[in-house]
Amino acid sequence: MAYATEHSTHAHGALEGRTAGLVARLRDALARRKLYRQTIRELGALSNRELSDLGLHRSMIRRIAYQAAYEA
């Protein structure tokens, strides 16, 4: 029995492009989340005096981390 198959390079290429885009967005999201968590961890490790020297208050840490990761 013979089978005929037709390959559509265009459709396959489009799927690869969408997959590559999804992977790129996922990597970007993970990198941003990592930066957010790292910023919180590093600023949280500072004493109140050290934060004050930087002109920061402990209540500002999450906002600063968000700005560093997602608004930059």
How would you summarize the topology of this molecule?
Elements: H1 9-44, H2 48-53, H3 61-70
Polypeptide structure, described:
The protein is mainly α and 72 residues long. The chain contains three helices and no strands. Helix 1 (9-44) packs antiparallel against helix 3 (61-70). Helix content is 72%, strand content 0%.
Structural class, from helix and strand content? Answer: mainly alpha
The termini sit apart by: 61 Å
Helix content: over 70%
**What is the makeup of the main sheet?**
none
Q: What fraction of the residues are assigned to beta strands by DSSP?
A: under 5%
What pattern of helices and strands is seen along the backbone? HHH
* Gyration radius over CA: 23 Å
Query: What's the number of extended β-strand segments?
Result: 0
Q: Which residues form runs of ≥5 with pLDDT under 50?
A: none
Q: What's the shape?
A: rod-shaped
If helices are DSSP runs of H or I spanning 4 or more residues, what is the number of helices? 3
Question: Could you tell me the mean pLDDT?
Answer: 89
Brief write-up:
This protein is mostly helical and 72 residues long. The protein has helices at residues 9-44, 48-53, 61-70. It has three helices and no strands.
